[in-house]
């Protein structure tokens, strides 16, 4: 596995890579992980080779891997049956080239809308077309690209990327569960009993967390969980909100379950894992009518969608759920029911038994013909 980011970083790409690694090892597969440093050189009994990296403005805690000859050497020595490339951009692109030179089958996981994110930062905004050319060139080297949502599959196909297939994401149902609702925590956050609306995620420009300012007119408490470069400015822009910082594990699960409504504010999500985690926690969800959330929220069934370009749309969606507790409970129950089959073990088994197997079969067939 060549991962664009891995532990100790906490983000969607690293978390997905970790769940894949866990299930592969549980099924008895041998695994080698190559990722940017710094970080531990092992994950359980799996060796992690750390490639050279640098840090970007606005994302200084996020190391970006550099092309490194050690990647190809490690692949050649390990002699894998297949190379899994997690969200390839720089180190992943190099990994795909190295795999091709070594004649190794490859599966690339598309997970980050880099072009969409870049548009939120002045120093990257003009790079949109160049980024898409790079994405197309990089993923064209893979035997199969897997995208997590209908919207991301369509975007890749329209962008000229070949051999694109859909592969979703799992959710940890042992961790995220309505039973973790903590009434003492709710009284601490909302002593007057007002409903609690929460956001969980990175505090950065592309997440559009400032949209939560619309909720200041509603009779609710706003809780923001996460950290990032925009935290200080957001605390200034949202003085009534409660900022809880980065939370993980059982602590995070308890916060999710303690919400009355979960809101995701950004429209550049290829999937949006926090929506699934909120649904697994028995919470009604609100998300943008764009990108990955379109697959996760069926408007009026298990949550509500808002129009990102329409001022007040987010506020109206949240208000609807707050004003109609019976509908909110119905949508929360529907969301919980819909995620019950999306365990990480089932999702990774699908990755191995369908996508890995088909790529290995196709590669073997080509070699027999050659």
Automatic annotation (TrEMBL):
One of its GO terms (biological process) is carbohydrate derivative biosynthetic process. Residues 10-174 form the Glycosyltransferase subfamily 4-like N-terminal domain. Keywords: Glycosyltransferase, Transferase. Residues 186-335 form the Glycosyl transferase family domain. SUPFAM superfamilies: UDP-Glycosyltransferase/glycogen phosphorylase. CDD domains: GT4-like (cd03814). PANTHER family: SULFOQUINOVOSYL TRANSFERASE SQD2. This is Glycosyltransferase family 1 protein. It comes from Kribbella antibiotica. The lineage of its organism: Bacteria, Bacillati, Actinomycetota, Actinomycetes, Propionibacteriales.
């Amino acid at each position: 596995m060549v991962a664009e980011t891995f532990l100790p970083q906490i983000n969607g790409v690293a978390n997905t890579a970790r769940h894949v690694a866990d299930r592969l090892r549980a099924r008895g597969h041998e695994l080698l992980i190559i990722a940017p440093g710094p970080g531990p050189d092992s994950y359980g009994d799996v060796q992690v080779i750390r490639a050279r990296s640098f840090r970007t403005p606005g994302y200084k805690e996020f190391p970006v891997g550099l092309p490194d000859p050690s990647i190809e050497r490690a692949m050649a020595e390990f002699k894998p049956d297949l190379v899994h490339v997690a969200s390839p951009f720089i180190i992943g692109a190099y990994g795909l080239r190295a795999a091709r030179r070594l004649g190794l089958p490859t599966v690339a996981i598309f997970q980050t809308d880099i072009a969409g994110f870049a548009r939120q930062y002045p120093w990257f905004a003009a790079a949109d077309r160049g980024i898409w050319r790079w994405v197309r060139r990089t993923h064209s080297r893979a035997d199969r690209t897997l995208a997590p949502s209908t919207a991301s599959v369509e975007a890749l196909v329209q962008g000229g990327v070949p051999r694109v297939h859909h592969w979703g994401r799992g959710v940890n149902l042992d961790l995220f569960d309505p039973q973790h609702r903590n009434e003492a925590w709710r009284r601490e956050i909302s002593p007057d009993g007002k409903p609690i609306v929460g956001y969980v995620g990175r505090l950065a420009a592309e997440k559009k967390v400032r949209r939560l300012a619309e909720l200041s007119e509603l009779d609710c408490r706003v809780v923001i969980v996460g950290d990032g470069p925009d935290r200080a400015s957001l605390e200034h822009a949202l003085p009534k909100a409660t900022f809880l910082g980065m939370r993980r594990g059982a602590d995070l699960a308890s916060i999710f379950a303690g919400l009355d409504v979960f809101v995701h504010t950004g429209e550049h999500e290829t999937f949006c894992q926090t929506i699934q985690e909120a649904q697994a926690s028995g919470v009604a969800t609100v998300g943008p009518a764009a990108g990955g959330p379109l697959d996760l929220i069926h408007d009026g069934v298990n949550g509500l969608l808002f129009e990102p370009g329409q001022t007040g749309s987010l506020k109206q969606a949240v208000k609807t759920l707050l004003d109609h507790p019976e509908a909110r409970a119905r949508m929360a129950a529907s969301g919980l029911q819909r995620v019950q089959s999306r365990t990480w073990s089932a999702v990774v088994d699908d990755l191995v038994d369908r996508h890995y197997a088909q790529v290995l079969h196709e590669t073997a067939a080509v070699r027999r013909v050659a």
